[in-house]
């Protein structure tokens, strides 16, 4: 497409231009920000100018984003490599009809949500008890999309939690389950086995360990087990009766699944009403995504900024920096959402991609990151586009000094990244510090910040359940738009298979039941070391 070439040339041409200069034009922030109600995305601190923005918007239009989006919402099988519809949006839809293979899926969605609510209410009210009494703790066993969404959301909504305590076990490392279960009264603990396929080795191994631990603590070991899965026949084989199985269809991808049964732990923690508010928030973002013109469309704009930085400017990573402690797991959640979705090398038409398919996503909450890796962001040789998130009001100690300092730090960082500190200013500082001559020059150079480093800032009034829904749906649709523009399928994940298969074949070698013959030299060397000990 010609426009790719034009954008590449544009990126090259503006490489040396200072972002700060763009503010000399009147009212840049208004032209380079967009809102949905009181949520606002500011991307004015990027090197995108009017011409670039208009080219990027044309790129989105020419790539068929609107048609693909409509196909997704309509239940068409856009996940072509797996022959599946992509309908996580149906899980948060309150009304309407969504047809898959000639059947309206919405009645099933509503029924499952109601069953989840009845169960969550029963757990929270004490109508459903453990063998030792009212449920005090919930352990969610799952991995990837069956862990990251609920773990992130339960932490994000900690200020709204009034149900049993929720714990999350994902790693097959025995330390994870032992540390989570140790100290719990298992007779009042509910175990949720969350696995779309109900075959994932980490989850099933942890579930079996939990069942064995339960067997030592109570008479009926599976009476306090619940399953969340689309493989309902397998849950029965594990011993969990149908009334405690919450199923979902194959049109819900693992990393897009927190809106349905996989969100049960969220619902138990914060209550069905707050869970519904999360869904409402996501649905509001869905409506915005479907109806707002691209120039005002938050997911489209966020995607275009992302493409500009990674594909056109060539910045290989992106930092997500929530100035919101409760969003501490958001970077990890987004790592799966973005990198499992778009970490691809082959386009839908079978051709090799000629551009990178997306950045490495990483991050930590501010202000902690400032005291760890921001040094590299400010003075390291590579440019790291930063995505800041911050609320006008905190959930705890709302408008106290804590929050003022948090916000001040967030704004200070994006400002510092953009403006930097020149050699002249650094020299003045050194002169004031009493240095002169060669020593002044030497010291001043270390105090220069190149600046001109791009960032976006997403601001919102407060991290409420509804706002969380909006934020997560915003990122989901951003990934979708990027995927469509790149021409890839964002909804499969074949890249995780090979490692799984090899792990399966190495287990018997480690256990001494199979020879290491035929393995590569390095793996044999490591096996020899590990087996000897
Ligand atoms: O890592 C691959 C993956 O399939 C993810 O996409 C998924 O979220 C995770 O494993 C867990 O899968 P399941 O829910 O089937 O246990």
Bound molecules: 6-O-phosphono-beta-D-fructofuranose
General shape: globular
Structural class: alpha/beta
The name of the CATH architecture of the largest domain is: 3-Layer(aba) Sandwich
Low-confidence stretches: none
CATH superfamily of the largest domain: Glucose-6-phosphate isomerase like protein, domain 1
What is the radius of gyration computed over CA atoms, rounded to a whole number of angstroms? 25 Å
What percentage of amino acids are in beta strands?
A: 5-15%
Relative helix content: 40-55%
Biggest sheet details: 6 strands, mixed
Number of discrete helical segments = 21
Count of distinct structural domains: 3
What's the total number of strands? 15
**Spatial gap, N to C terminus:** 57 Å
| Overall mean pLDDT | 97
Strand neighbour order, sheet with most strands: 1-2-15-14-12-13
CATH fold title of the largest domain: Rossmann fold
The CATH class of the largest domain turns out to be Alpha Beta
Function: Catalyzes the reversible isomerization of glucose-6-phosphate to fructose-6-phosphate.
Pfam families: PGI
Family: Belongs to the GPI family.
Pathway: Carbohydrate biosynthesis; gluconeogenesis; Carbohydrate degradation; glycolysis; D-glyceraldehyde 3-phosphate and glycerone phosphate from D-glucose: step 2/4
